[in-house]
Amino acid sequence: MKIVIVIDLIDTLTNGSVMTARRFADGLAERGHEVKIVAVGADGENDCPLKERYVPVLSEVSAKNQIKFGKFDKAKIKAAFSGADIIHFIFPFRLEKKCKRLADEMGVPTTAAFHVQPENVSYNAHMGRSRLFCRIVYAYLKNTFYRHFTRIHCPSAFIATQLKKHGYSGEMYVISNGYDKAFTPPPERKVNEKFEVVMVGRLAPEKNQKVLISAIAKSKYKDKIHLTLLGNGSCKKRLSRQAEKLGVDISFGFLPKDMLIAKLQECDLYVHAATVEIEAIACIEAIACGLVPVIADSPLSATPQFALDSRSLFGDNNADELAAKIDYWYERPDEREKMSRVYADFAKKFSLENSLRLAEDMFADQIRGNQILSAARVRAKAEKAF
After folding, report:
1. Does residue 55 contact residue 61 with C-beta atoms inside 8 Å?
2. Cβ burial, residue 143 (10 Å; 0-12/13-18/19+)
3. CATH superfamily ID and name for 195-348
4. pLDDT one-digit tens code per residue, 203-255
5. Nearest partner of 214 among 75, 87, 317, judged by Cα
6. Degrees to nearest 5, angle at CA 272 with 267 and 278
7. Which residue, among 48, 39, 108, has the nearest Cα to 75 in the 3D structure?
8. Angstrom distance (rounded) from CA 16 to CA 223
9. What is the pLDDT of residue 64?
10. CA nearest 312: which of 267, 349, 269, 280?
11. Beta partners for 314?
């Protein structure tokens, strides 16, 4: 297939949706498809690089969350769309809306992914989980973008359910964003001086790293624990001050893939404290490396699907319960080792290879659907003329 992926930006690898798009593009190319990317920062031989669109105030706010907006260039994009079998959209912003209209004019089949969870917006706007605001955002995204698609890629069953609940009518394809096969358990796990706890994700309000710091401060083994938070974001200074005040041994960083794998392979426990999460590929990568997870059981998060039992769950934003779960795993190294193998095996169902096969099926379904619709229109036109 000749596949075009449209996303506002492709050169900010601290953004989870961007990393997903890059993995999908590379993976599809390795499976023999011809893939083009339309985005700011696209640099492949056949890609369509765009200029950045500046939006007063919004661009400054979005930059803090590693988002840029692409500027629509009809001539360049039309050339990129020419001859395509399918066009897949990652975001629902202005660039994608204009590209969707152009694709429809050209008669090219299209699909869209749902990656922008409204609660991410509300938390970053300091509105918490405002139900009214989120209902408005779900409705806006549906009415201005997603209602124009018959097939929508949902990274988790959780978000597919949310879309149906908010009146989205397209067929939902639940396809994990998938983890890279390079994420594997180490041949032998390192014995650390301290109990190494790690969390990966943007340092943002909805990721709730603050509850993890509070939990470690409450742990019986506080002085024997080292916490690593991997990610960039607006909350870094606040989290650093909190850890210093509570006496929590902490490190921050952002690591390229090879170093991230090495770090996960040498840690003892993975915690995912996010209140809002469409999937959390970082959690999948951690369990693929054999780390036992402890996950926030939030009604706004899909990540609890990765917990195999209650020992890997804690009440959302409940520092006392999280501290108890950390202590439980600290005290049971043999059980942790046993469950490490179980989790690594469980992670395989979320492999990128499996996700790519499912995405290919979605694309093929849309192409066939367009062909059937086009044939029906031709017949209807002929009958009317007759």
Report:
1. no
2. exposed
3. Glycogen Phosphorylase B; (3.40.50.2000)
4. 989 999 999 999 999 999 999 999 999 998 889 999 999 999 999 999 999 99
5. 317
6. 135
7. 48
8. 32
9. 64
10. 269
11. 296
Quick: pLDDT tens for 80-121. Answer: 999 999 999 999 999 999 999 999 999 999 999 999 888 877
Alpha helices in 126-272 (DSSP H): 131-144, 157-165, 209-218, 236-246, 257-266
* Model confidence, pTM: 0.88
Q: Which residues pair with 151 in a beta bridge?
A: 171
CATH architecture of 2-178+352-385: 3-Layer(aba) Sandwich (3.40)
**pLDDT tier at 171 (50, 70, 90 boundaries)?**
very high
Q: 38 — phi, psi (to 5°)?
A: -105, 110
CB 155 within 8 A of CB 177: yes
Strand order of the β-sheet with 195-200 is: 250-253, 225-230, 195-200, 269-272, 293-297, 313-315
Give the per-residue pLDDT at 65: 63
User: Cβ(289)–Cβ(313) under 8 Å?
Assistant: no
Q: Where are the domains of the chain?
A: 2-178+352-385, 195-348
Q: How many residues does the chain have?
A: 386
Which of 139-153, 190-204, 232-246, 361-375 bottoms out in mean pLDDT, i.e. has the lowest? Answer: 361-375
Whole-angstrom distance, CA of residue 149 vs CA of residue 151: 6
Question: 16-30 and 281-288 helices cross at what angle (nearest 10)?
Answer: 60
